[in-house]
Amino acid sequence: MDREERKTINQGQEDEMEIYGYNLSRWKLAIVSLGVICSGGFLLLLLYWMPEWRVKATCVRAAIKDCEVVLLRTTDEFKMWFCAKIRVLSLETYPVSSPKSMSNKLSNGHAVCLIENPTEENRHRISKYSQTESQQIRYFTHHSVKYFWNDTIHNFDFLKGLDEGVSCTSIYEKHSAGLTKGMHAYRKLLYGVNEIAVKVPSVFKLLIKEVLNPFYIFQLFSVILWSTDEYYYYALAIVVMSIVSIVSSLYSIRKQYVMLHDMVATHSTVRVSVCRVNEEIEEIFSTDLVPGDVMVIPLNGTIMPCDAVLINGTCIVNESMLTGESVPVTKTNLPNPSVDVKGIGDELYNPETHKRHTLFCGTTVIQTRFYTGELVKAIVVRTGFSTSKGQLVRSILYPKPTDFKLYRDAYLFLLCLVAVAGIGFIYTIINSILNEVQVGVIIIESLDIITITVPPALPAAMTAGIVYAQRRLKKIGIFCISPQRINICGQLNLVCFDKTGTLTEDGLDLWGIQRVENARFLSPEENVCNEMLVKSQFVACMATCHSLTKIEGVLSGDPLDLKMFEAIGWILEEATEEETALHNRIMPTVVRPPKQLLPESTPAGNQEMELFELPATYEIGIVRQFPFSSALQRMSVVARVLGDRKMDAYMKGAPEAIAGLCKPETVPVDFQNVLEDFTKQGFRVIALAHRKLESKLTWHKVQNISRDAIENNMDFMGLIIMQNKLKQETPAVLEDLHKANIRTVMVTGDSMLTAVSVARDCGMILPQDKVIIAEALPPKDGKVAKINWHYADSLTQCSHPSAIDPEAIPVKLVHDSLEDLQMTRYHFAMNGKSFSVILEHFQDLVPKLMLHGTVFARMAPDQKTQLIEALQNVDYFVGMCGDGANDCGALKRAHGGISLSELEASVASPFTSKTPSISCVPNLIREGRAALITSFCVFKFMALYSIIQYFSVTLLYSILSNLGDFQFLFIDLAIILVVVFTMSLNPAWKELVAQRPPSGLISGALLFSVLSQIIICIGFQSLGFFWVKQQPWYEVWHPKSDACNTTGSGFWNSSHVDNETELDEHNIQNYENTTVFFISSFQYLIVAIAFSKGKPFRQPCYKNYFFVFSVIFLYIFILFIMLYPVASVDQVLQIVCVPYQWRVTMLIIVLVNAFVSITVENFFLDMVLWKVVFNRDKQGEYRFSTTQPPQESVDRWGKCCLPWALGCRKKTPKAKYMYLAQELLVDPEWPPKPQTTTEAKALVKENGSCQIITIT
């Protein structure tokens, strides 16, 4: 039964969830209603905060198939609960959807068929979503996605479009005709409206949601309690603070909603033309589109309202919304396997694999190209939140919670304070009952002790530091949409960088070319734009093999193509719409050299002309284009020189890929060596190839031929060498990060050797460091997966193992003493394919490779995200710096993602830098560290404030006294709020240091600091409290007490008379109260100064002028009223007169307290403890290539010293990567030797690990 009731939806995906079924129970509902009334609504609040409790308290378990409510729990580390109500979609209510064909489909169970006649292929693909007898479909909505009941799998499943399980053949054969009106209406009922609905919640709704936060409820409770105790002023101050906090929070939340709404509103409703089955064109609103509709792309372009696959014509699209790069991309129609000469008939369509043929939602179609009489058509594959843009918006609307130790520890700390409050609560009740105090007073005083221990101002105090940090970041051009992440950035110890546009300049410069003649390389040439080369095939390839287009008269396209085309100085001309209409074919794009490059006596060309007159100039027409494919690593074109009978095929791409498609006899023997020489110097190398096509290939045949038929048997023509310059600031920034013990990793889409070269140039890999390339091969022909390890500098000698110098191999000498350890630093480099194979087949090796992996080349966007996750799995705090949305997933997943692009795509990134330079990374980490230390300071100060006040009140409760209202007010408003909001103003330290701040509150140093200050403060307060009772002049205070011997003085007499007239009901005025008030007032300021540390993470506190001024002013004021009492002040604060000698004694107690507090905090904790541990680190793990921050050891020291953590093994580091680094030091098999192979054993599936054999 339990197995039946607990299922998993979205299995294996990021949003995988367990699902449980429940039915509403009336008797449970009645009991809960009674509980809500009895608890004054508190139970209702508790159930509002806890969806799991809410469902379990009001419902009974039921089979998922028949339940009324589902309870969902995420399977990730957060285990978050959600609940959703089951709704029923009745298909009978829709008149259009019940022709006979529909009823038949329902009786077959195919409620969600995407074609008119369900075939066997589709029976597997499309599930039985409805209960056949009732013609009703049960569903629920979670995070903007509808999940329908699926009879086939006996579970809920979300409705898929044409993006899964549909072959390319069926897209043409079954879906290209369009839908009937009935089918369209039927699908619309299921898929709903095609819109990404970001509703901006009303201010009232947001207000209710914000106010029902547990902290604000606690503040409300405190305010009501204080009001009953006539403590109105502070109650009013807390109310004002809460209102300001709520208003600012509402403003920022609403602003984000509005921004997001505006971002999706651009394409939410436009008019589109769709083709119906009978070839009629119908104009509908884009909100009515459903998967399967055939949309006509207008000539003048449009913003795509959905994801659609192109089946006719060509489009030029600006995809900056998705990729962050505003380079126009050419989209061609999906290859039709049934027409192509050579094609894979049953290849499944996938929007990612076929992205060159897919128009994505939110992207802008700038231009279309077409056959005359044929429209540019695309089939809608996904709508609404299922589209690429919808998924992006969903990830922003429903972000994953950030799991940060600080916040977990903060809750633990609060729980400790609550426990302390509980002790005080019980003590107060028992003490008051023993002293026969009235019930009303007992209730108020015992509850009051809770509000003292858990300060209601804590949330406002904690956010102050973050708000100030956010403001400082804004000043240096870094914008933040997730302020909580600023603190997390203070912990970053590894940063991943994209290469192009991030570490290096955006564009490439043409360094030169190296042509090939007779299978031999000629010497490199710098100038391509000359008369000698103008008619060469090499220049013809550079002129035609690109995806450039003219938009409003300006040449635009891929920056690499632009640089290449500009280098030859040719002119590109495109046919206008009118010219295209005159001919019954696509008019070619024409390229020609400028007249000055052509020799004076230009030959007239071939006399036998087919289509054209004698040409006056040399022109080449581009007949067919096969766009660049990152999977194939190449692009090609079919072109024809004006006047030539045969067409030419030109190809350019990655040198290895091109050489493999050329005739071996045309590729120079030293091709590999020449290529490596260039790539090692950091050049981007592109190879060119060419062949003459057969004359039987006519214009029309070329339009339908597959690229495989063209891209083979080519002649190798040579190399184009492009230079990608490092940005000026890159080396300096990376050096700063290395000095600060922050690891740097390169994640790029570029080639491996270029990436390694750039890594060396920018200092990511030092000259003496070794680079080991991991080349992983997937299982093939019954052979298991394996990894070949190459040493980067010896790749050229791979075929001669004996040639490798054994000295070049990274060697570790393991000695008895860590002091003698000598180790060569080494780095792993791998490409995206290898990374995927390692993730799948070598899970045991992943953590080891993460520890030293520095270069990850040819990485796809999802692989970048997987890399971030793999690094986080070994406990790194990972930052990611990229320049676009191809890094979008990685930017979101990282602890601190910073985008250098201000385009829409970067909206998912927590941080966006206005200046496109990586100098923002150290700035962000510095500010993060400052904000983190500020949070710790504030938290420690608020904890001490609570404990000091708690102890003051507990001491006074023992003599049935308390602090007066104005004493509370003076402490809470004048001291605490002023200090908290000014101590957060310290700016960040000007440079990054090697130390890292502690990651959590429950760390050795912090606990030692807090506990030592608590003991000191309690000790000196107790000393004052008990010592005053030992004074010869002491007596239990009464209105006629005169310890000051001031009976003769008129000044004191007046206040004395007031005392007599106004009876002190609460016993506020007494010697103990006055002593405790003065000593505790100074203690708040002492701990504020002790905790306000500057270096190494913040500027010194004397540079925080507001704080210094506030503290000095408060010191002077309290000293003044203590040493030179003012009657009016004493009367308001309910202070009694004590002898001058006792005032001096109190001053001495305070001075000794200050000396002890500051000495313990600044000398013992910082100088002795920190340095002892830091030196030990230097001798130990700090020497190794993993970055070991000293604080980790302080944490370990502290935790091992705590009584509840005595079981801790002292030598085991907390972070997995540090533990792993220690293990690898004594592993003789690691790192792998060059020229060795690691194989995965066949039986890898059982426990997810692999047995490794190393073959030399």
From TrEMBL:
**Record-linked SUPFAM superfamilies:** Calcium ATPase, transduction domain A (SSF81653), Calcium ATPase, transmembrane domain M (SSF81665), HAD-like (SSF56784), Metal cation-transporting ATPase, ATP-binding domain N (SSF81660)
Where does the P-type ATPase A domain start and stop, copy by copy?
Answer: 272-396
Select a single GO molecular function from the record's annotations and give it.
Answer: ATP hydrolysis activity
Q: What is its main location?
A: membrane
Instruction: State the reactions this protein catalyses.
Output: putrescine(out) + ATP + H2O = putrescine(in) + ADP + phosphate + H(+)
Instruction: Give the first-level EC class, as a single word.
Output: translocase
The topology of this chain with respect to the membrane is: Multi-pass membrane protein
Q: Which residues form the Cation-transporting P-type ATPase N-terminal domain?
A: 176-226
The EC number(s) this enzyme carries: 7.6.2.16
Keywords associated with the record: ATP-binding, Endosome, Magnesium, Membrane, Metal-binding, Nucleotide-binding, Phosphoprotein, Translocase, Transmembrane, Transmembrane helix
CDD domains, sorted: P-type_ATPase_cation
* Protein's name in the database: Polyamine-transporting ATPase 13A3
The lineage, from the top, is:
Eukaryota, Metazoa, Chordata, Craniata, Vertebrata
